[in-house]
Amino acid sequence: MIVDGSRRVAAIGLLAILSLFFFTITQNVSAQEELKGRPMFGVRPLANANLDAIQAQSNASTGLKVWTYKVTSTRTGSKGKSYTGVMVGNSPLTTKATTTTTVYVVPLIFDIGGQTFNPTVADSACLAGKVPETVLKNSPMVLATHDFKVNGVDMGATQYSDAFQRSNFWKDVSALGGTYHNKLAYKFLPAKTIKPGTSHSTLLSLSGSCTLLYGAVEINWFDSYIAGTVIPSLASAGVGPTNLVAFMMYNVTMYVSTTASCCVLGYHGAFGSPAQTYAPFEFDSAGAFGTASEDTDVMAHEIDEWQDDPLGNNPTPAWGHVGQQTGCQTNLEVGDPLSGTNFPNVTMNGFTYHLQELAFFSWFYGGPSIGAGGKFSDHGTFTSAQGPCT
Fold first, then answer.
1. 8, 141, 265, 307 — which has fewest CB within 10 A?
2. C-alpha separations of 267 from 129, 222, 253, 292, 303 in Å
3. Has this prediction a pTM greater than 0.90?
4. Angle 93-99-104 from CA coordinates, rounded to 5°
5. Each residue of 164-219: pLDDT tens digit?
6. Rounded Cα gap, residues 196 and 218, in angstroms
């Protein structure tokens, strides 16, 4: 059973998720190594999250607009246990109206080893002369013009994140007339240039691709720079705790400490009080990680995870041995279980976009499904809830 939660737990502790953050750099990385390593995604959870304070800030419009859910698991091994978390917007269980949250997008221009990776200029080698930022602006992540059908159910013309959330809680949304929407208003800000230096970045060779060199930056240095320097500099442009700021990285990936721990394609995080949420994501046009990670694939992964787990610490029964997770994980990250698996491609504005398939709420907490078509993911790959994770 899932309900709106009017009473909140005092705090949810910091989760150790994928152990991607706050490692010490142990060695420098030499230039032009071969690109290798499996694609990964991460999260930087909000430390010492006080849900009472977070909801009060939401109600006062000083923090991100969120709603609280309380659910009792029906899964074997956790049956009868209660879980509480927050999601972006208003509740699809009780709301018929549209909620709109602003998402600021900042293109990042990387200068790594004398090579420039710039999403704001035309790329004749990898994008047939198109400007990556423009391709993103015309995508189904940003525009609300594609008519999404999820597991045979028409979600209407909308953004992919909204189509997912509507289908995620379709049993309740449809019972209220199907008018619920959780929209994102995208605003693109001027690009920021980052020159990490050789201690925190490298060039990776990519054979057989439209680009021969790929950028890479160390994730702990990068996260510290983004949270400590870049985000504060954006306050005058309107960036603050009531919105999300997303960072577009063009053909640049991340590694943890050394390239032996590569490659992190995106993550979302939160810090401060009121909490500022943010999400760096890679926009790949070189096919470095296959068709399951190209163009808007990673953005779809991170934006939808932020939508359903904005603070990075919504607890779930243990799940795993699927997608990127080789062990067990205990948070509501809707992209991780299906990383590498795509929703059907969407062609619009002269470009074919890739979008990742996403796991439904019911997959994490147990059936029967409240999602569209009675499935447990938005393209039907999951036909039942996750079983016990050992």
1. 8
2. 28, 12, 11, 16, 9
3. yes
4. 135
5. 999 999 999 999 999 999 999 999 999 999 999 999 999 999 887 898 899 999 99
6. 9
